[in-house]
């Protein structure tokens, strides 16, 4: 990228003004978006204004529209709700209200508006934009604005960010607030599970979602619920019979509880509401089970935003500013969306139209169409739920195959959820499923047993690895492993783990030359907090670790708020991979994140010291303003000489008389804890997809009465790449791997590092070469996203 392009990003906003408002229902992560819009706007040279109380503030003007400063968005990142307020506004729905809003913007020279809200708020913004020139001419005629003011504000740019906990907006995989709402729901479900088991109760949980069942659906996948009711997919006419049969079957299999999830907008095939009370009464009357209803309500909107929502809000805020400043009178109003891990721009009204089409399809009882319009990700969730909750495993195993499941490497939250779905999908397909304890070592020693349906009951919410996991690689035990593959008649292997699972897979491929027994299909599901497995943008367990780091950083920042000026140096896990340090830096609002992958921080001493000096200078500057604390993250292996102690000593020395320093090594707490909703859902879907692939591969490899798989595509890594879940032969991934440092050679998240630096007020160039371009929603929907 040229110097001119760099310079262009820094001067893009000079002479321009941006207003940011939050409207409609609040959602966790809105503050992250507001903070990013303000800071990136100021970075580009633009003036940025807060509009307090949503559209009402735009209509009322006066003190409701205030210029923002860099410091005014400090300490906002970890707060739930919206700091600048939101209100439902009747005035803006009338043309008179919009006329007043236009006047307030023109008088301040604001021609760029960033609206963070749901589809109603975004539709209002589009109406405002389409009327803009008429509103200006009315104001001119009434003598309220001058000709010069009208010329300066001749057109209005609008960019929308979707903030809605329901995830009910078509065109984006995730709306701001959805992940945090799932966190709140799962905390409650986990708590209820313990009490329900004590009393052998049935719990009916009602979650938000008047027109969209996303929260209910993902919750049911994440907690292994017995049944879910959502508006898009009403149950069959005899659902009462089916539900009661399903609940009693769960009990006879040895479960002590039943969980039923209901979206508040749940309906039957005739459009008649199905309420929590209806379900409770049915269960009590027909089965006599002790049944309780819990309506979650506004708890779901509350609390601190998850790491995912903070990063999502920040990324979308950056993209929104770029979209506004690059906008022309001919650019349609756009909405910044998430597709896989890519930020994309989509025409706002196309998305609104598809969102309305879903509601229309449901009103017309075209439920299959409504499901399709929700997009591929939603449909994937629904298919996996139906398989796990509604299909009975066959009684006989005749003609079945034997598949073994194992964990390899360090423990990661979500491993158990992946094992559970792999085992259960295997059983549903009529296979015999074996579980291997203690990784490749257990495979060599014969620590193998058969798993039935209830073996993995209640595993989704449990952290760590119930099967036991070790870092041992298979090469030195090929003879014993081959003997056990024959002894237990293992015809396929599902390996859930980190970098060792991948290198173990490569060793198995090599071993096929010597041992025919190793010629069986295998698939690796990436599961490691480090997120360093080649072939996948995300690993199971990384989201949980990220949230743990975030929560800790929040507490540390809070502890510093009441003390004198202080800098914290925090060491994160990740081996040589800087994913956790970088993403936690973005989510926790760190001043710097030192990682191995940024070459100038390690290649030569002079540059590094200059970099540290710049950091210290930056912190010294920061301490003179109202902000009194600094946060520096360091990846554990970013440099063997510049250790956490070294950075701590340097900052202590350089900061004498200005700030004092503290250090904190987070350690193994990052591998522990209950998995987040993202990790539970991701793991469940990965397990299901891996097992479906495995069944097909075993059938494909069946020759002369036995399995013989010797092609490169019979040993794969299942990974999420940009917008799709894909199987990639391990042999093909070799060239993409830096084996010495156990990381992929290319990592998508490195492109987010400039954002981290800008949001921390560095002198940094923003790489605008990787910005999203306007796409169309029809194309977007054909892509597949993981979660």
Structural summary, described in words:
The chain has 26 helices and 26 strands. The chain is α/β, with parallel strands linked by helices. The chain has a seven-stranded mixed beta sheet with strand order 3-2-1-4-5-10-11, sandwiched between helices. It has a seven-stranded mixed beta sheet with strand order 14-13-12-15-16-23-24, sandwiched between helices. β18, α21 and β19 form a beta-alpha-beta unit. The longest helix is centred in the C-terminal third of the chain and has 24 residues.
Give a summary of the structure in a few sentences:
Helices cover 42% and strands 16% of the residues. The chain has 787 residues and is of the alpha/beta class. The strands form 6 sheets. Strands 3-2-1-4-5-10-11 form a 7-stranded mixed β-sheet, with helices on both faces. A 7-stranded mixed β-sheet has the order 14-13-12-15-16-23-24, with helices on both faces.
């Amino acid at each position: 990228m040229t110097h001119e392009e760099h310079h262009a990003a820094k001067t893009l906003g000079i002479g321009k003004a941006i207003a940011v408002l939050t409207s409609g229902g609040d959602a966790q992560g809105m503050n992250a978006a507001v903070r990013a819009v303000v800071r990136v706007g100021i970075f580009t040279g633009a003036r940025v204004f807060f509009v307090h109380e949503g559209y009402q503030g735009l209509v009322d003007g006066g003190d409701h529209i205030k210029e923002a400063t860099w410091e005014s968005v400090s300490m906002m990142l970890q707060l739930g709700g919206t700091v600048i307020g939101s209100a439902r506004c009747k005035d803006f729905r009338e043309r008179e209200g919009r006329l007043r809003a236009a006047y307030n913007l023109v008088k301040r020279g604001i021609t760029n508006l960033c609206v963070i809200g749901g589809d109603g708020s975004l539709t209002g913004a589009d109406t405002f934009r389409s009327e803009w020139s008429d509103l200006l001419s009315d104001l001119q005629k009434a003598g309220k604005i001058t000709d010069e003011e009208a010329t300066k504000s001749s057109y209005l740019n609008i960019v929308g960010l979707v903030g809605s906990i329901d995830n009910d907006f078509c065109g984006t995989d995730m709306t701001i607030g959805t992940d945090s709402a799932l966190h709140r729901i799962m905390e409650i479900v986990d708590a209820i599970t313990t009490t329900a088991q004590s009393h052998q109760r049935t719990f009916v949980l009602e979650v938000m979602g008047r027109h969209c069942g996303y929260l209910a659906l993902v919750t049911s996948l994440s907690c292994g619920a017995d049944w879910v009711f959502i508006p898009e997919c009403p149950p069959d006419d005899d659902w009462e019979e089916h539900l009661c049969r399903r609940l009693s079957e769960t009990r006879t299999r040895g479960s002590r509880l039943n969980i039923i999830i209901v979206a508040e907008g749940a309906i039957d095939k005739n459009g008649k509401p199905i309420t929590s009370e209806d379900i409770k009464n049915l269960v009590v009357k027909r089965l006599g089970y002790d049944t309780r209803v819990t309506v979650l309500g506004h708890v779901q909107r509350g609390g601190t935003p998850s790491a995912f929502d903070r990063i999502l809000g920040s990324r979308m805020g950056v993209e929104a500013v770029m979209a506004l400043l690059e906008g022309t009178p001919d650019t349609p109003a756009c909405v910044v969306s998430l597709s896989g891990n890519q930020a994309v721009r989509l025409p706002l009204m196309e998305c609104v139209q598809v969102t309305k089409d879903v509601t229309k399809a449901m009103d017309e009882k075209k439920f299959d169409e409504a499901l399709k319009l929700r997009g591929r990700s939603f449909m994937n969730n629904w298919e996996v739920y139906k398989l796990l909750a509604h299909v009975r495993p066959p009684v006989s195993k005749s003609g079945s195959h034997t598949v073994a499941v194992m964990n390899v490497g360090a423990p990661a939250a979500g491993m158990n959820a992946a094992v559970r779905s792999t085992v259960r999908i295997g059983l549903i397909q009529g296979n015999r499923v074996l579980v291997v304890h203690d990784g490749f070592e257990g495979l060599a020693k014969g620590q193998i047993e058969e798993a039935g349906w209830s073996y993995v009951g209640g595993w989704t919410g449990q952290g760590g690895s119930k099967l036991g996991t070790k870092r041992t690689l298979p090469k030195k035990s090929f003879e014993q492993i081959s003997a056990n593959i024959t002894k237990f008649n293992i015809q396929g292997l599902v390996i859930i783990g980190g970098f060792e699972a991948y290198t173990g897979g490569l060793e198995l491929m090599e071993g096929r030359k010597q041992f025919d027994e190793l010629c069986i299909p295998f698939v690796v599901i990436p599961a490691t907090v480090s997120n360093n497995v080649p072939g996948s943008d995300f690993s199971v367990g990384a989201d949980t670790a990220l949230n743990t780091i975030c929560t800790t950083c929040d507490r540390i920042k809070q502890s510093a708020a009441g003390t004198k000026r202080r800098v914290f140096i925090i060491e994160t896990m990740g081996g040589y991979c800087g994913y956790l340090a970088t993403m936690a830096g973005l989510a926790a609002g760190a001043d710097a994140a030192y990682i191995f992958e940024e070459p100038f921080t390690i290649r030569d001493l002079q540059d590094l010291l200059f970099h540290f000096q710049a950091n210290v200078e930056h912190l010294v500057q920061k301490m003179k303003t109202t902000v009194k604390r600094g946060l520096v993250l360091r990846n554990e292996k970013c440099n063997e000489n510049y250790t956490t102690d070294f950075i701590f000593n340097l900052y202590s020395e350089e900061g004498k008389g200005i700030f004092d320093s503290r250090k904190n090594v987070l350690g193994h707490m990052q591998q522990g804890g209950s998995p987040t909703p993202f990790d539970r859902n991701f793991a469940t879907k990965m397990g299901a997809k891996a097992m479906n692939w495995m069944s097909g591969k075993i059938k494909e490899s069946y020759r002369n009465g036995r399995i013989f798989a010797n092609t490169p595509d019979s040993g794969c890594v299942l990974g999420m790449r940009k917008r799709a879940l894909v199987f990639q032969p391990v042999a093909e991934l070799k060239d993409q791997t830096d084996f010495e440092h156990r990381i992929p050679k290319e990592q998508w998240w490195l492109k987010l590092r400039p954002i981290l630096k800008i949001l921390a007020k560095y002198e940094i160039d923003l790489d605008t070469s990787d910005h999203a371009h306007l796409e169309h929603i029809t194309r977007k929907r054909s892509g597949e996203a993981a979660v």
